[in-house]
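Posting this for the archive.
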Amino acid sequence: MHIFNFPVKFKLDKKEGGFLITFRDIPEAITQAETVEECFIEAADCLEEAIAGRIDDGFIVPEPSEKRRGEKIITVPSQSSVRR
């Protein structure tokens, strides 16, 4: 079984509060959360939806990049990472 561990960045929004959540491998996967704990939940949901959208639209799901400093890792459920 192939596991997809995508790097994610939680950027503190000093002006509005909360965090902006982005994935450099899947640029359309953008969301937000109020706390770090919520970031992990929202990031997983956002990533799963973005990958499902790519699969539905016939687009490639890229291999995850290596994690960089300041990034966290979100694991995609195996059924979400199936490629066509």
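The two ends are 16 Å apart (CA to CA). The chain is about 25% helix and 25% strand.
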